[in-house]
Amino acid sequence: MKRIGMLTSGGDCQALNAAMRGVVKTLTHSGEDVEVYGFQDGYKGLIYCNFQILTGRDFSGILTKGGTMLGTSRTPFKLLDEPTPEGLNKVEEMKRNYAKLGLDCLVILGGNGTHKTANRLQEEGLNVVTLPKTIDNDLWGTDMTFGFQSAVDIATNAIDCIHTTASSHGRVFIVEVMGHKVGWLTLNAGMAGGADIILIPEIPYDIKKVIDKIEERDKNGSRFTIIAVAEGAISKEDAKLSKKDYKKKVEKRKVSVSYEIAEEIFKRTGREVRVTVPGHMQRGGSPCPYDRVFASRLGAEAGKLILEGKYGFMVGYKNREIVRVSLEDVAGKLKYVDPDARIIQEAKLLGISFGD
Ligand code: F6P
Hints:
By secondary structure, the chain is an alpha/beta fold. The protein has two domains: 2-147 and 287-330, 3-Layer(aba) Sandwich (Rossmann fold); 151-283, Rossmann fold (3-Layer(aba) Sandwich). Helix content is 41%, strand content 17%. The chain has helices spanning 16-29, 43-47, 90-100, 112-123, 148-169, 184-192, 207-219, 236-239, 243-253, 257-269, 289-308, 327-330, 342-349; strands spanning 2-8, 34-39, 51-54, 105-110, 128-132, 172-177, 197-199, 225-230, 273-276, 313-318, 321-326. The chain is elongated. The model has no long low-confidence stretch (mean pLDDT 97). It binds 6-O-phosphono-beta-D-fructofuranose. The site of 6-O-phosphono-beta-D-fructofuranose has 10 residues, from loops. Residues 11, 111, 134-136, 178-180, 231, 283 line the site of 6-O-phosphono-beta-D-fructofuranose.
């Protein structure tokens, strides 16, 4: 009998259910008797011992369902050593509940912050296997995270819709795509949707270069311009500020960077600019077929790790293969878009401006 604790932490994404199903199906299919302790709302459930016991049957029929059947919440890593409002030591409570329930291991699905905590639990002696989720695709140690391709589809669809109305009206349109720290989603959706300008956090922009591109398109007879802007896009000027000063500026701004860019374009060119923010839609709905397959494969490998009694790994994807990556290597590292990457060079060859 294997007793597995399972939780999903951080912002949700598509294919969380598909990944959990993959783990449990692999275990039950091997003939192993499995009891899953599904912790409610992420690490919170483990801290407060809030769980439901699930069996293989509970994981049937969830392959195509978005969200997470376990619920999720954020438990910031930087606050991990601060007590709960009731004065509980979070790490000690998680260790205590793990031991009390007689768990063989924890299966943790999450992004960057989640992996820091997972690694901490591993260091504290718990058996942990993790799976990489996030629409941001910013987790180090894996070429891809599940949720990413589904979000690319949704953000691309938003750009596609904007394209038709932008061409009718001859306007400049900004589509703001999720991603505060990294630009994978904006880059991919931007290219897939035929954006003319793509602004991502890793390549600070110069507003003059953005306007140059709009004017170049005007001269060439294109009536409209589509700009895909990541939530975390930053101007060259702002990139020079200290982290603290930039944070202060963002807090003061109250609106997102896209509105600042829109205002600047209007002020300098008099052109009509509209901003569209698909927001959390990008994390919602049913996982795309790619993510269903991908998350199932990752889940199967996690199940295999558990059957082999091997812990301390994130199941990732490298060079088109499912791989096991040591948790301590993953924790605390982000995977950024390299401004010199081939994909950026190729996008530039196509005439896409990054405002640099
Ligand atoms: O980490 C995924 C992500 O979707 C980011 O792209 C986005 O900036 C953030 O979460 C939004 O978080 P919240 O759900 O807390 O609004």
